[in-house]
Amino acid sequence: MKNWKKLFKPTQPGPTFETLIKNEQEKLYKIAFSYMKNEQDALDVVQEAIVNGYKAFDKLQKPQYFSTWITRILINTAINELRRKKKVTFLEIEKYEQPAKDTQLSIHRLDLAEVLERLKPEQRTLLMMRFHYGYSIKEIAQIFDKPEGTIKSQIHRTLAHVKAELDEGGEKYGEA
Predict the structure, then answer these.
(1) Which of 49, 50, 133, 52 is nearest to 91 (CA)?
(2) What is the Cβ-side half-sphere exposure of residue 61, based on CA atoms within 13 angstroms?
(3) In which domain of life is the source organism classified (predicted)?
(4) Fewer CB within 10 A of the terminal residue: the chain, N end or C end?
């Protein structure tokens, strides 16, 4: 019994993996679900990411970056799982927003959802992390291991693309 207790003692000073992961679990599930579009697949991806994170926890040098580190592991795990299953992922805006009372607003949301579905997965992820989950540019840059300027320009180009697509809405569907 003493040998088992040695295995589960913290190996380094500071917060344990368990305490850090408890603070992140809800956010990790939401991100996984946005990729997998299925509760069971999202839970599987979160579980696999946590196992991978636990195995590599001793390599994490600065615990204050745990959130971005584990998020990056989760995103990579989700992308790998999607490649393995060869699924296409679409963002379903309706699951994250309150239903619209105004018909015109509903039409705009449907247009937005359609435009977001056509984005590349990385573009959709950037927009979700920045505007839905509230990550800063610096945090996103750390997660993607890219310079902040690159992330800013990618977000700006993606937003410009979304705006251009939405501006064409009246021409595509006729004026309301």
Answers:
(1) 133
(2) 0
(3) Bacteria
(4) N
CA distance 51 to 41: 15
What does pLDDT average to in each consecutive run of 10 residues of the chain (176 residues)? Answer: 50 79 91 88 94 91 89 90 67 51 51 77 85 86 90 92 75 49
- Tell me what pLDDT residue 40 has: 93
CB contact burial 97-111 (16+ within 10 A = b; e otherwise): eeeeeeeeeeeeeeb
Distance CA 22, CA 102 (A): 39
Domain identity same for 72 and 109: no
- Residue 146: which domain range? 98-173
Strand segments (E) across 57-146: none
Contact indicator for 107, 176 with CB cutoff of 8 Å: yes
